[in-house]
Design a protein that fits this description.
The complex is a heterodimer of chains A (103) and B (117). Chain A is mainly β. Chain A is 0% helix and 44% strand. Chain A has no helices and 10 strands. In chain A, a hairpin with a 6-residue loop joins strand 4 (33-37) and strand 5. The mean pLDDT of chain A is 94. In chain B, strands 2, 4, 5, 6, 9, 10 and 11 form a 7-stranded mixed β-sheet that branches. A 4-stranded antiparallel β-sheet of chain B has the order 1-3-8-7, with no helix packed on it. Classes of the chains: A mainly beta (103), B mainly beta (117). At the A-B interface, strand 4, strand 5 and strand 9 of A face strand 5 and strand 10 of B.
Chain lengths: 103, 117
């Protein structure tokens, strides 16, 4: 198991595609889960496994993985997608530092 | 509808104690692993405690091991006993359902814990 590293901040133009990454030694074995947190709210479960959306999550959210890096991809980003995104390891339960997404 | 609701947060001085509770409904509590996750002001998420469905296996983050105790009650409640509180324990504490393998699918709204002198 290892720590998970995320970009501090990412920005995207409304309607464009953005990728948020999560890097760590165990990523290719234990695909991380993804969560979205808006200011003042509890986190929301978004993605699990290699590319599985949680119930109710729009299909513009998807996942991919390459080597020691997993990615959350938002196709045609919307204003409501702004906020913080966290990955967490299914190996040791630890979270990455989080990525602030600005749309 | 799955619901989790934390309570018991408040203010304490360093060295004090606090017991958080989480009331759950809408699912078979006995079948799920549970966790506590916290978030310090302006910081990211930190997993701190885990308990398996039977209540016999627990795990803690190094930052709280030996000071915090997670437990679960038959009345559909999850608990976190916090002792020897420190200033850096100040955070929002979330009760979180674990569907499998550290996959946190439902979160409570959180309860605020503030530790200051």
């Amino acid at each position: 198991s290892s720590e998970l590293t995320q970009e501090t901040a990412v920005s995207v133009v409304l309607g464009q595609t953005v990728k948020i990454t999560c890097q760590g030694d165990g990523v290719s074995t234990y695909y991380p889960n993804w969560y979205h947190q808006k200011p003042g709210q509890a986190p929301l479960f978004v993605l699990y496994g290699k590319n599985n959306r949680a119930p109710g999550i729009p299909d513009r959210f998807s996942g991919s993985s390459s080597g020691d890096t997993a990615s959350l991809i938002i196709t045609s980003a919307q204003a409501e997608d702004e906020g913080d995104y966290y990955c967490n390891s299914r190996d040791n339960r630890q979270f990455g530092g989080g990525t602030k997404l600005t749309v | 509808e799955v619901q989790l609701l934390e309570s018991g947060g408040g203010s304490r001085q360093p060295g004090g104690s606090l017991r958080l509770s989480c009331a759950v409904s809408g699912f078979t509590f006995e079948s799920y692993e549970m966790n506590w996750v916290r978030q310090a002001p302006g910081k990211g998420l930190e997993w701190i405690a885990y308990i398996n469905s039977a209540g016999r296996m627990v795990d803690y983050a190094d930052s709280v091991r030996g000071r915090f105790t997670i437990s679960r009650g038959g009345g559909h409640s999850l608990y976190l006993q916090m002792t020897d509180l420190r200033v850096d324990d100040t955070a929002i504490y979330y009760c979180v359902r674990d569907v499998t393998g550290a996959t946190f699918d439902y979160w409570g709204p959180g309860t605020q814990v503030t530790v200051s002198s």
